[in-house]
Design brief:
Chain lengths: ~70, ~550
């Protein structure tokens, strides 16, 4: 389960995702002036980054969801 | 000398607010209105990382709508099982409507569900983001000339021989030292919890409780546990909510609800005892195989993610909102350590007592207490002189802060975190409790503290933050286990299998935890004032209507009814 960069070419490096993510998943690639997914393992799939990205660069992908183990079934 | 290698950014202010959720927002606003120089700092970003994404109801006391203060007090006392601090609860009655009206004026809340259906999705988006608390709150602070210093992990409060004089932390990206000197500090750092391993949702990490404890304050409410449901496919989606609620909505509610039970751990007993009804907490259907089927129908701002089923057990060992945290020694959100204040879920205001009584108390409690704490800290700060943080204390604090980055070998904080969660999260530790299990868990936590927590290594700032969070969570685990062992009764969201009934004679009391001599944890009882104990002559089964498993049989045997 994770976020991915769907439209890299649209990213202007505004940093909205860096500031929005509660789990500190993003960093800015200062040279390329684009976002970078630095700590994908900490993505909690909350989708906040996709809501606040003004250009629709990011996507949270259902295809990657792994169903977590629940205690009682 | 690390402090000489890294750049130090200095911030001077009268009042420093740590944490940028609802309590922090109001604390900063109020201290600023009192004419003081205010700085607010946040581990993430102000207005975004502060209050949980799920905080969307705001309880209001409104006499013009027929709310009766005595009814409210009676309801909350009964639901909080007579551990409610009525001095703080009265602040809800006095202030919640005023705070709500301010939020309305700022456009942070509104009461418009109908329009939603009439607009196109593009204008909906525009509308929602235009009313978005995460965008509006920092804007309002900025306009008030309040300094915001964001993405800073604060690791320690700084003290001189008399009072708190600031705080130190590091910037998440630049790794520079962030040094704040202030005449008063307000902790608005929220609460914490333990999430089941396997769920990727990050923990709220009790940072404020740990910092205040280390600075000498007392901590209370660790003996009561809340828990959360979650989605079995998308664990983020705790309440399977509509998207627009997540983005923006804050709905006014009444509270404490006068009918119906409080939030209780009853479903956990049911599972434990294999007793009906269980169905409402179990997956109703298997998850769809085709990802396309996950997609939500209709217009939505949210990415098309699965809904799944609501299941138990995502988070255990959460504090009861407003009933866990820094113990106030007066009615002004004051910790007893000169210059240190707290508000919101970082303050053990005990307005909910032993169990959460209704929706909306969390958020409106934070607004009300943030405002009061801002005012009290401003009064204190305006009577203080500036004090300087000595360079020695900066050096030693920054050495402690960065030590995990310097280690060449050490335990991985992610692994230590998983071990901690594995130890604390199972329901039979904190939700269905028993002396021997608590003791053996405490034994493991002490091992963690002595052998793993002190030897964690971080490869970068991202991991350094986790190292400090794991330290804070482990310290809090010790507090919880000790407090739960000490409370030899069951009450509200505290269920002991070996003491399955309330014991009014011994336990109309809160448990205060502080750092004792030799840095050992020290616990003591703080009796609930008699005037807040309700009618103790009322028959037991009338006074307490929620039943614990085995309760009545136990009472028959010990003759305590």
């Amino acid at each position: 389960m994770a976020v991915r960069i769907a439209k890299y070419e649209l990213c202007t490096g505004c940093g909205s995702c860096v500031n929005t993510c509660p789990c500190d998943v993003f960093r800015l690639d200062k040279e390329k002036k684009k976002t970078k997914i630095e700590y994908i393992e900490d993505c909690q799939v909350c989708s906040m980054c996709t809501i606040y990205c003004p250009l629709g660069v990011l996507e949270v992908t259902p295809e990657k969801i792994i169903q977590p183990t629940t205690a009682y079934m | 000398m690390i402090s000489k290698e890294k750049q130090t950014n200095r911030f001077e202010c009268d009042v420093l607010v740590i944490g940028g959720g609802m309590a922090g927002f109001y604390a900063a606003i109020r201290a600023n209105q009192k004419g003081l120089k205010v700085t607010i700092t946040d581990k993430g970003t102000v207005g975004r990382s502060g209050f949980t994404p799920w905080a969307n109801t705001f309880s209001i006391f409104d006499e013009s709508l027929g709310d009766d203060p005595q009814e409210w007090i009676k309801a909350v006392q009964s639901k909080g099982e007579y551990l409610v601090n009525l001095a703080y609860f009265n602040m809800q009655i006095e202030d919640s409507l005023a705070r709500y009206k301010e939020l309305l004026n700022w456009g942070i809340v509104d009461s418009r569900p109908e329009e939603w259906d009439k607009t196109s999705s593009i204008s909906s988006r525009k509308y929602l983001l235009g009313h978005d608390r995460r965008i509006l709150m920092p804007k309002i602070l900025k306009e008030a000339d309040i300094t915001m210093v964001q993405r800073v992990m604060i690791t320690e409060l700084l003290k001189d021989d008399k009072q708190i004089i600031g705080a130190i932390g590091f910037h998440m990206e630049s790794s520079e030292i962030m040094l704040f000197s202030a005449k008063a500090v307000i902790l608005c750092t929220g609460a914490g919890g333990y999430k089941a391993p396997g769920y990727p949702i990050h923990c709220s990490t009790f940072d404020g409780d740990a910092m205040a404890y280390n600075a000498g304050a007392s901590i209370a409410g660790k003996d009561f546990m809340d828990f959360h449901f979650t989605g079995d496919i998308n664990p983020w989606d705790v309440f399977q909510m509509e998207e627009e609620i997540f983005v923006n909505r804050i709905y006014p509610t009444k509270g404490p609800e006068l009918e119906g039970p409080s939030v209780s751990i009853d479903p956990i007993f049911k599972i434990h005892k294999n007793a009906p009804p269980l169905n409402e907490f179990l997956p109703k259907e298997p998850p769809p195989k085709n990802p396309e089927d996950y997609r939500n129908k209709g217009k939505s701002l949210m990415p098309k993610l699965p809904k799944g089923n609501i299941v138990m057990g995502a988070a255990t060992g959460l504090g009861v909102h407003k009933s866990e945290g820094i113990w106030p020694v007066n009615n002004e959100c004051y910790s007893g350590i000169p210059g240190l204040y707290a508000a919101g879920d970082a303050l053990a205001s005990m307005i909910c007592g032993a169990a959460y009584p209704s929706t909306g108390m969390g958020l409106s409690g934070s607004a009300v207490q943030g405002y009061r704490a801002g005012e009290a800290a401003a009064v204190f700060a305006s009577q203080c002189n500036n004090s300087t943080v000595s360079s020695d204390s900066v050096t030693s604090a920054s050495e402690r802060m960065f030590a995990p980055l310097k280690s060449s070998r050490g335990f991985n904080p992610r692994w230590v975190n998983q071990v901690l969660l594995n130890t604390m999260a199972p329901y039979y530790i904190l939700l269905v409790m028993e002396k021997k299990r608590l003791e053996s868990t405490l034994n493991q936590i002490e091992f963690l503290q002595q052998n793993l927590v002190t030897r964690m290594k971080a490869k970068d700032n991202h991991e350094l933050r986790l190292v400090h969070e794991v330290c804070n969570m482990t310290l809090n685990a010790e507090m919880k286990l000790r407090a739960c062992l000490m409370r030899t009764e069951s009450r509200g969201n505290h269920y002991r299998q070996d003491f399955p009934a309330r014991n009014d004679k011994e336990w109309l009391a809160w448990i205060l935890i502080s750092k004792g001599k030799d840095s050992k944890m020290s616990l003591k009882k703080e009796p609930v004032p008699q005037k807040w104990q309700g009618n103790i002559n009322e028959p037991y089964e009338k006074r307490y209507t929620l039943r614990f498993p085995g309760e009545l049989e136990y009472l028959e045997n010990v003759g305590g009814k």
